[in-house]
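Side project, low priority. Logging it here so it doesn't get lost.
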Amino acid sequence: MIIIGLLVLMVSVMVKQMIVRPATEALTVASNIAAGDLSQNVRVQTVDELGRLGLGLNSMISGLKGMIVKCQGCSSEDRGCLEKRQGNICRNLLMGVG
């Protein structure tokens, strides 16, 4: 009975280390992105689905930062520049182009 209890404890600790923590961290970063905070990245430590999720979130953060820099490159007086850049961003998002 003690051996089974120890095995259950070991498995639960492993699940927490391998699944729950990375998923919680990814969720936290995604929530921060939704709130406009692009200062964080996900620590990617695996190459499984959770690792790929982290890489995807990090790539999204980088892309959003790039879009912000492009938009900041337009002066507030040059609406044509800003509208053109926003149009390109929207078109790229709809077509799935990075």
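Brief comment: The chain has a mean pLDDT of 81.
Revisit when time allows.
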